[in-house]
Amino acid sequence: MNEKAKTAIIIGAGPAGLTAAYELLQKTDIVPFVFEASGDIGGISKTINYKGNRIDLGGHRFFSKSERVMKWWQNILPLQGAPSKDDLLLDRNIPLSKETNAPNPQKQDEVMLVRSRLSRIFFLRRFFDYPISLNLKTLQNLGIFRIIRIAWSYLTIRLFPIKKEKNLEDFFTNRFGKELYLTFFKDYTEKVWGVPCSNIKPEWGAQRIKGLSITKAIIHALKNIFSKDESLDQKKTQTSLIEQFLYPKYGPGQLWEKVAELISEKGGEVNLNQKVIGIEIDENRITGVTIRNEKTGNEFKMKGDYFFSCMPVKELIEEMDKNVPKEVRKISEGLIYRDFVTVGLLLKKMKIKNETKLKTMNNIVPDNWIYIQERDVKVGRLQIFNNWSPYMVKDDSNVWIGLEYFCNEGDELWSMADKDLAEFAIDEFCKIDLIEKEDVLDSVVIRMPKTYPAYFGSYDKFYKIREFTDKFENLFLIGRNGMHRYNNQDHSMLTAMMAVENIVNNIKTKDNIWEVNTEKDYHEEK
User: Are residues 173 and 278 in the same domain?
Assistant: First the structure.
């Protein structure tokens, strides 16, 4: 390496960190060094391979309102040019790449598939559309009296809205009415976060579901009667209402593992099991970091010119040690995270049947994921990996599902032994009649700490942390945990892209990075 070459130290090998490294290599002479504390590539966008069956943690639809991001993904993994396994079997008509030599997913692995989107709510032991739509099926499931209450409360709130939204409960109520909020949003949201909606800041709703409302859902349904937007960009469609999305053949981790390979090929480094345990500061600049090898315990120091942090803000401030003002340290200590557990179950079959018009392999239910809103179980969501990609499942005759639990690191659920937690999950799904116990072939438990940065605790004073970190000219906070913001994968990537552009254009302010995912017409549900 040229001794005069500038270097960038990137903390974290998730979407934001790897995007930053890739963009630096594409647009600058800066050499990126990525350090990841775990042994995995992709952060929460990684894919776990369990005995040939792959788990996508959280579920990642590759869809973005950003044309730049959509092209970026397809530059790494090109769009399929021939039908996939289930496309062929079910005789599905999907958009295919017209590029010469576009990959055939039956013969090549490095390919992006086009997938149909379906998410539903399971409540009252019945299926509801997600987002909720006022169709005949919904009316039948809810009953006339509940529908009247929902309609009345919605009309009331439209006439007399809550003028100042103080919390997430106010946010939901203003958009859906009190009755619909109580029916479909309250219990599930509190299951996710572990606290009442009245304790959560409205910013969470503003980021995650922004423009969606009953009115827009109805308008979308009416439009679909006459025509559907079958384009991949679906620019005129609300994100929660999209009909299709892109997806790597072997899950999101496949794309990020490929990006890591390209970074290494182009002269950068991606180092796993390397944890940053100290950050050196000289006035308004970061000068270096201390890194510990998590396998050997050995520590070493490394200097750098630029620093990109995807690590949880709480940990970043801890590693700055004595250089942090007491108030900023106290606020960082009060930041809260919600943790996540997936229980993967390999099944002979599911008890629930496909009663939709959508064709699937072995006629399993067609959902990508199902929101479990039953109040008598703790499980929050169900993923059906067969429907994300048929190549995620080793044996086509089996059903491969993920049961998702939201918890706090160290609590009873998190601390349960793997065997006990798997049994607990199986019992819950038998209880709500989704599976039969004798159909379970295998199970695995995966824990993911700090999955969701919370909009409560000391979050209302987070701006003071931002003011402090923004003072360091060569420090860029990017990504979900890096900014303590509930970003999607594409938003995390855009923050990294903005940071690199600021370096290229010598822009000192970080405002454009923080403005990512604040636009009013962009939202997502997961």
Answer: no
